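Task: sequence design from structure.
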């Protein structure tokens, strides 16, 4: 290619990229994707970083591949979106002979599609269905119609306590039949810390150092990890403290002396969000892929809740330090229960560095109650637990 031709090619590419950016200013696919679908000239600037929840919220009607055709400044154009059951998307945009591809994650809430690119940029598009058409409001007042070309059936979501269905979650199924890169489970948690093994070598972001921001502290009842030393022997009744239990909230049963809990301190590389968000939503800001992935670390410790006045019982929750059991895993909780060899229930999509204290300490019951009343994350009850993961292909290599 001559220098003149190369210059002309470069100018054409730059013009197409500018036109595409003006087409979908709301999409922060911003991509500089090189395509012009409409003549809108609005620039919303850099999109905010995404605050995507760890669970996958999916309208199952979206799952599959959708195609839209339209007229662009450069001739007929097409957009093809593939929405997976694991809340990952792919988009291919075509104008003339050009094909540009992009991938990322998405979630759905209140009729709005939230799309997050690999670099963390996010956009929000209202959507609705009319017959067999998907209408995406790609710009205020500007709907584009998509038709389903390859449907994808997602598994039924698990039921939450009380019988209500939870949000659909990542399953490790491929996006669609024509996709060449199926989604797979990364290493999972919790595990038996006394047992070596694991064959899942998918990378977990981070270098083993603690990320800068403590974004959440919460606890599970009972302890989630196995392979923790036996808890100290203390009486389950008597002594001072709250005999009726502490940290009960609504339908959540109080915690009483004699019960085991596992406390988790969650650290993140993400900046403080503009407004506080509940639970682990306060810890996330986008993708775990690319050159600057989101890094998560959980420090964990098991406690035996003990009557006040128990000799040696701690008077506050204190994150572990010193020699800890470290491995690559995931988020936990009942939404992702499963992991037996034949268990169809889903894996967790978020990858986490774990550092667990293998000791079990005693904790005064009133100290736990005071923490539930005063912690800045409004954590006022025990979270449910996930089954200990047994399948080797869901566990990272680990040696106690």
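Answer:
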């Amino acid at each position: 290619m001559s220098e003149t031709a190369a210059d002309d090619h470069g100018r054409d590419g730059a013009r197409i990229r500018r036109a595409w950016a003006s087409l979908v200013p709301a999409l922060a696919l911003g991509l500089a994707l090189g395509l012009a679908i409409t003549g809108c000239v609005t620039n919303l600037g850099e999109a905010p970083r995404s605050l995507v929840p760890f669970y996958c919220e999916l309208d199952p009607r979206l799952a599959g591949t959708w195609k839209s055709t339209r007229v662009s400044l450069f001739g007929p154009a097409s957009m093809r979106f593939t929405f997976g059951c694991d809340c990952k998307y792919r988009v291919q945009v075509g104008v003339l002979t050009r094909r540009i591809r992009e991938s990322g994650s998405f979630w759905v809430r209140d009729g709005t599609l939230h799309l997050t690119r690999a670099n963390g940029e996010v956009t929000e598009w209202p959507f609705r269905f009319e017959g067999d058409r998907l209408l995406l409001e790609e710009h205020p007042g500007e709907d584009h119609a998509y038709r389903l070309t390859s449907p994808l059936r997602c598994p039924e979501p698990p039921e939450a306590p009380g019988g209500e269905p939870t949000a659909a979650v990542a399953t490790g199924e491929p996006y669609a039949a024509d996709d060449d890169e199926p989604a797979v489970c990364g290493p999972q948690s919790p595990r038996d810390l006394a047992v070596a093994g694991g064959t899942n070598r998918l990378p977990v972001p981070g270098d083993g150092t603690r990320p800068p921001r403590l974004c959440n502290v919460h606890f599970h009842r009972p302890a989630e990890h196995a392979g923790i030393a036996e808890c100290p022997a203390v009486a389950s009744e008597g002594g001072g403290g709250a005999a009726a239990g502490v940290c009960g909230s609504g339908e959540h049963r109080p915690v009483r002396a004699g019960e085991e809990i596992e406390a988790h301190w969650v650290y993140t590389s993400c900046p403080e969000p503009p407004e506080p968000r509940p639970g682990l939503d306060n810890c996330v800001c986008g993708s775990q892929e690319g050159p600057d992935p989101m890094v998560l670390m959980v420090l964990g410790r098991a406690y035996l809740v003990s009557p006040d006045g128990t000799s040696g019982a701690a008077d506050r929750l204190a994150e572990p330090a010193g020699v800890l059991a470290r491995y690559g895993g995931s988020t936990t909780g009942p939404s992702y229960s499963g992991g037996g060899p034949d268990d169809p229930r889903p894996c967790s999509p978020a990858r986490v560095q774990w550092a667990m204290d293998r000791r079990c300490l005693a904790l005064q019951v009133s100290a736990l109650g005071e923490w539930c009343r005063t912690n800045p994350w409004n954590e006022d009850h025990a979270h449910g637990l996930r089954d200990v993961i047994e399948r080797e292909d869901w566990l990272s290599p680990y040696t106690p």
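The first helix runs from residue 3 to 23.
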